[in-house]
Amino acid sequence: MPDPRPSKYAVSLPLLTIVVVVLLIAVFSELFLVSQVQGRWIDSDSMSLSDREQELLQLLGEGVIGERSTLTPIHDVTHWFPLVDQIGEYVYGSGKRKGSMRTDTLNWVQRNPKSPPGSQEGGWSLSTGKRKVEYLVQQDGNLLLPTELDLSEGVVSVFNPPEPVLLEGVEPGEPQISETTVSVYDLHAPSDLKYTGKLQITYIDKGAYEVTVPSGTFEARLITINYVGKVGPAHVSATSIAFYAKGVGRVAYIRRNHISAFLVYNKTTQWGFLLHDFSPLSDRSGDAGSQENPETPKTKP
């Protein structure tokens, strides 16, 4: 039968339990300290790029996306998307339009679409190419999109609450999920409501990367926004991917839209754009866009 007497090398169960507990506390303390140094807990799944996102990033072309970088999260959106009158020249990164140019223009406007005539509730008008105009506003520190004009389709889309463009204080890897109601009006008859619907929006800060585009190499934050829902008879699936560099704004971005209705209409558009040149319109000194505080710009004459 086994010898019931304790060996001089035996360790008592209570002592072993204490040792294990102390080791576990040390491990978790180390993890906590590391996360505190980084300033956040990171969800590795949310930080990783999905297969779809990796596929879309190929639209930017080769040699654009470099290694992961270390940048502080976005805590002032105007540092990452300067709200000044400006012109950005972008080049198509791939596809049949590769190498051709497109101009994005940002200007202060005194009244947003769908605001009452005479309203002083202004915002920023972002014209992307010749077919789309996005109206941006800064609210509670966030950059939001309440209204969008699609000139090719002849419609005005109003989002309530506004869509996110850049959110402040969002930790990398933390999905920000929201829902917006979409109202689509005829551009030439603003009171004519054509469609309504809802979109679920998932906004994620995917961390920082080194990005090389024709205008230079930048340390940039990667923001992905996914949209899923139904507007009128159409099912909508869209993805926005953008790299933002401090003091410049979007240095590379991708927009993919997919719309289908009743299995008879199916349209997908997707393009990648690389910043070629960035020009703040400094000759407009004294205008709204040149003010130090973009939240309270002066009205233009």
Explain briefly what this protein structure is.
The chain has 301 residues and is mainly β.
Label this structure with key terms.
single chain; 301 residues; mainly beta; twelve-stranded antiparallel barrel; 14% helix; disordered N terminus; disordered C terminus
Query: What's the helix-strand series?
Result: HHHEHEEEEEEEEEEEE
Shape field: globular
Report the structural category. Answer: mainly beta
**How many domains, as an integer?**
1
Low-confidence stretches: 1-11, 25-43, 283-301
Instruction: Give the terminus-to-terminus CA distance.
Output: 102 Å
Question: What is the helix fraction of residues, given as a range?
Answer: 10-25%
- Number of DSSP E strands: 13
Count of DSSP-assigned helices = 4
Mean pLDDT: 78
Strands in their spatial order, largest beta sheet: 2-3-4-5-6-7-8-9-10-11-12-13
Largest sheet: 12 strands, antiparallel, barrel
Radius of gyration: 25 Å
Strand content: over 45%
Question: Could you walk me through the main structural features you see in this protein, from its secondary elements to its overall organization?
Answer:
- The chain is mainly beta.
- It has one domain (51-290).
- Helix content is 14%, strand content 50%.
- The protein contains four helices and 13 strands.
- It has a twelve-stranded antiparallel beta barrel.
- The radius of gyration is 25 Å and the shape is globular.
- The model is unreliable at 1-11, 25-43 and 283-301 (pLDDT under 50).
